[in-house]
Amino acid sequence: MTARVAINGYGTIGKRVAEAVSLQEDMEVAGVVKRSPTFEAYIAADLGLPLYAATKENIKGFEDAGLPVEGTLDELLDDADIVVDCTPKKSGYKELYQKKKIKAIWQGGEKHELTGLSFNAYPAYEKAYGADMVRVVSCNTTGLIRTVYPLMKEIGVKNVLATLIRRAADPWDSKKGPINAIEPVLKIPSHHGPDVQSVLPSLDIQTTAVAVPTTLMHLHSVAVKLEKEVSKDDILDVWDASPRLIFVDAGMGIRSTAQIMELAKDMDRSRGDLYEIAVWEDSVHVVGDMLYYYQAIHQESDVVPENIDAIRAMLQMEDDNMKSMEMTDRAMGIIMPYE
Ligand code: NAD
Q1: Which of 59, 86, 98, 176 could form a disulfide with 13 if both were Cys (CB 3.0 to 4.6 A apart)?
Q2: Across-strand partners of 106?
């Protein structure tokens, strides 16, 4: 089967999901949906992606700009197997997707309650198998699950305390702050802990979050109480065998998120993206049953491979999560522990 994938919203996440879909052997982009002819619409057309307007009213704007569209979102949904909704949170398309009887994936800005099924490919693939509506959890939640779930699976975790130092805005975004301030989320736990629990309900996790004036990445400082005492090497072995993680260290010259982003560019990643969560190997510290570490999250891209696996699970194209992840990662050039 070649899955025909519609992408509604062609911004930060949408354009990356479209590229990742077009790299997969078993998927193709049925169309991407925009409301107005921004530069991203021109790039989509240049890439040969079928371009659709969100509504009939939006079509004139494209025509006036000399950028013809194939039709509207409504029409695209009739010609696709699944839609990946990459519009801003609460855009409100659920009713339309249900009316069109099309399977739909949303992103982490939405609440768990929208779909009742929150997704990360390692722990939740089976649950999403054949499902009609799934939410891929946010970038921060994905980052925490990527390192904590393998520890739960291989060692056992009593509880987690994570402090999230969050980028204020994405690099393209000139509207958001903070500008010269550090802004704590005063509600503790921040929403991230409960969000991790939407995928890992048995995990005891508390999170705090602070926004800082940077755009590159998020950084997490994580403390984990393990169920037994293990060595640092045991921890590194678990993560080494787990999907979508990479190690960085000061010896490589990587002391901040700036060098991690430079590394991704030097690895020739599309847009300089880093789909893997970067764990600082030097920071991994074990005292008795306590584990401490830092990890960095590329907010614009870590959720993209998860969307691809969600498509495969929901359309029942592959029943083994490890095989789906391997296919996704091979196509996207993600560093793999599989072989
Ligand atoms: P974005 O603003 O970069 O892109 C949204 C796109 O949707 C834009 O092209 C916009 O023009 C379009 N759009 C807006 N309203 C629309 C509508 N009603 N119909 C059709 N298109 C519409 O947003 P984003 O950062 O890609 O976020 C999308 C989702 O992904 C949100 O749920 C967000 O929380 C989540 N997410 C974002 C990030 C991140 O770091 N940017 C990371 C993980 C998850």
Answers
A1: 86
A2: 135
Residues 26-54: tens digit of each pLDDT: 999 999 999 999 999 999 999 999 999 99
Query: Which tens digits make up the pLDDT trace of 112-167?
Result: 999 999 999 999 999 999 999 999 999 999 999 999 999 999 999 999 999 999 99
CA of 11 to the centre of ligand 1 (A): 6
User: With bands split at pLDDT 50, 70 and 90, how would you rate the model's confidence at 339?
Assistant: low
Residue nearest to atom 4 of ligand 1 (CA): 11
DSSP 199-262: T-TT--EEEEEEEES--S-EEEEEEEEESS---HHHHHHHHHTSTTEEEE-GGGT--SHHHHHH
- Residue 167 contacts residue 215 (beta carbons within 8 Å): yes
What digits encode the pLDDT tens for the residues 241-273? 999 999 999 999 999 999 999 999 999 999 999
Count the Cβ atoms, other than its own, within 10 Å of residue 7: 31
Q: Which residues pair with 296 in a beta bridge?
A: 219, 278
Is residue 86 annotated as part of the catalytic site, yes or no? no
- pLDDT score, position 248: 97
- The answer to whether 92 touches 14, Cβ cutoff 8 Å, is no
Measure the N-to-C terminal CA separation of the chain; round to a whole number of Å: 26
Which residue's alpha carbon is nearest to atom 20 within ligand 1?
Answer: 9
Could you tell me if the CB of 73 is within 6 A of ligand 1?
no
Task: Centre a 10 Å sphere on the Cβ of residue 223 and count the other Cβ atoms it contains.
Answer: 15
87 lines ligand 1 (CB under 6 A): yes
Give the amino acid at 139: C
Tell whether the model's pLDDT for residue 337 goes beyond 90. Answer: no
- Ligand 1 centroid to Cα of residue 128, in Å, is 23
Q: Which of 87, 114, 119, 306 to mutate to test the pocket of ligand 1 (most atoms within 8 A of CB)?
A: 87
Q: Please indicate whether residue 301, judged by its CB atom, sits closer than 6 Å to ligand 1.
A: no
Cα separation, 125 vs 268, whole angstroms:
29
